[in-house]
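Q: Two folds, back to back.
A: First:
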Amino acid sequence: MPNLTLDSLQTSIVDDVRRALAEDVGDGDITASLIPADRQADGRIITRESAVFCGRAWADEVARQVDPQIAIEWLVNDGDTLLADQTICRFSGPARGLLTAERSMLNFIQLLSATATRSRHFADLVAGTNVKLLDTRKTIPGLRLAQKYAVTCGGCHNHRIGLYDAFLIKENHIAACGGITQAVSRAHDIAPGKPVEVEVESLEELKQALEAGADIVMLDELSDEDMRTAVSLNAGRAKLEASGGITEATLRSVAETGVDYISIGSMTKDVKAVDLSMRLRFQAAD
């Protein structure tokens, strides 16, 4: 599947931020109302640890929706490597707006940077091989597109976005359809042109999937030896994806079997937020 681009996410970003602010601000930030409405402030966001940055567009949208008078000067771009104590942006504007925007801005940046950082870690582990690392649908509810974009900022790639843009035929689908051949044939009839992927648990099932005309075959928890055999049997007829039971310790050896893809759910579901800090300086009242 093609990777998501920032240009394709503009509507999603607006919606993500609208939901976040509705959740956080509700009908008004009562604590920020303690500050005089004309009070101005400036400041910066720093990272307390090394990371791969992502989330600039979401932070910009938070500022726009909270108070268009907030101005942000970015010192980094999505995909940049950050060092501990590095300033990632400077900002200025109404103090009330900055205080209201603070948590939502940081939440988006720390989550998306964490996803990009973890993705970069995995990408580095397979550097020099021809494999592409793919994300999965194991994402935070409501933020799938944002996280999948962050994956690309870390140097990995997007699998299908949801249940609508590609087939992934698994054991239960196969059983319900009466077999791999029947399931693949039915998929081609229902949505011609949509990618059809079949999950298999043995080399015999791989042969059935290839004969049925699958575009991609997912090798579920096969041994490295069986994956190398699968690559030989496949002979380029379909793309091969390894999945299931793959750890950081085994990732490199799986990549070296010659499979085209490896999908990793922990790229998006097991992330630890990047530690950020927003520092404000209030301008003297007139």
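A: Second:
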Amino acid sequence: MRVLTKIILIVFVFEVVLFLIASGIPQNNPSLVSAFNSTENQVLNQSYFGKVLMIFGNNVRVAFLDFIPAVGMIILAVSIYSTGAVLSAFSSSLNVPGILSALGLMTLPHSWLELPSYAVAASSGLYIVIRPREWVRGLLTLIIVPIELFLAALVESGEFYVSNPYILWLYSIPAFVFLYFLYEFLQKRADRYIKVKTPVTQQQNVIQIQQPTYADYITRYNQSWNTASYYETQGNLAEAMRYYWEAIFYLITAVGNKLGMPTLTKEDQDNVIKSVAYKVGNPQLYDIYNEAFKIRIENRLNDFQIFKEYLSQLTRYLNSI
């Protein structure tokens, strides 16, 4: 789930809970009741499309205020609490608990179009604060808000003209589906923009480090073996022994690379030799390797020919893999 989606869900739950709490607090405020009646009368005196434009204009103004980064969440909390308080006051004037009115309002289809739009607007602004480099996601997501509020206004205005407002759920469900796919479309557009802008910049600062391949190690093996042969012809057995062992190290590493086995430690190299010994059917290969290793560690130049013979056997079997 995207980070923005999680934020929207959290804000929406906060919004609904705050609305229910505010509605549940008894309010005996005649001025709030008067303001509610005045607004309701203005709406009732409009035609259907007049109602749509009036409801939409008021709601979209609130939503864009909710979008303001950093302060939008505060504006959302104040507006939702105020709405709940007005509903509580009006309900109290009719001797009806405000919480019941709020729950009844939440069963109407327009509520589930209108309330989420405020959460989307506030979350989009909050996302820009949290991830300023991905500001385009917050801005693109805001596009859905006026569309959602316009659909909500169409439904809410229609509720004044039907005997059973719940029948408008038949219209609202396709609207929800449309809004979902629109949201996903906008998020994918944001993903594409962010992938184009961010990774390219990061790639300019990344140094690509390529690990040596099997062929690379074989090349180093040949170079070291040839160097050892040169020192041997010059009579410098100490250097010859050093480069012969270096060559066998590169060969073991190459074979380990080919077999997908690590070769970082002596134990790793031992495991490679054991694996090769098993594959070629020569269990003495590991003993030969260890004897050569002892001669190298002890620098026994008197055993140079034995050392070289051991390495020759090792190379023959290692090269057969």
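Q: And?
A: The chain has 14 helices and no strands.
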